[in-house]
Amino acid sequence: MQAETLLPKEHPLIGLWRINLPEQRCAEIYDIRTDGTTQILSGGQVVKTQYDISLAPNAQGFYTWMDTVVQVNSEPDCMGNVVPNGNVATNYIVMHASGSKFMMCQKADIETCFGPFLKEEGI
Fold it and tell me: CB of 16 within 8 A of CB of 101?
């Protein structure tokens, strides 16, 4: 399966991101790569995806992110779930002006957002 989007290394979403989930005493790490793939670590779960992320935000400031799971182990994530292989998820991303954090939204509506995802340096 070919990645749908190759992002330039200057794209604001490229890099390592962490979301802390204190209620679960857990954190998720998203490694968004320029080759159109993402690796997500959540609890014991390791997920590899191929993404299609818009190059620029829409007029309302949202990037569209469609993720397709291409490989997953059988371990549960921070929430106790196991994502199925082939799962497709579409989310909307709002970047903070600093570029060091973003919110992930279920719809292109700020009321559906969760986060923040924080940029990790030097991992």
Answer: no
pLDDT digits over 44-81, tens only? 999 999 999 999 999 999 999 999 999 999 899 999 99
Is the pTM higher than 0.85? yes
Give the whole-angstrom CA distance, residue 54 versus residue 106. 16
What's the sign of the alpha-carbon dihedral 108, 110, 114, 116? positive
Q: Collapsing DSSP states into helix, strand and coil, what is residue 21? A: strand
Could you tell me the domains of the chain? 15-119 (2.40.128)
Place of tokens 């940029």: 119
Question: Are 78 and 47 a contacting pair, CB within 8 Å?
Answer: no
Amino acid code (one letter) for 86: G
CA–CA gap between residue 5 and residue 22 (Å, rounded):
32
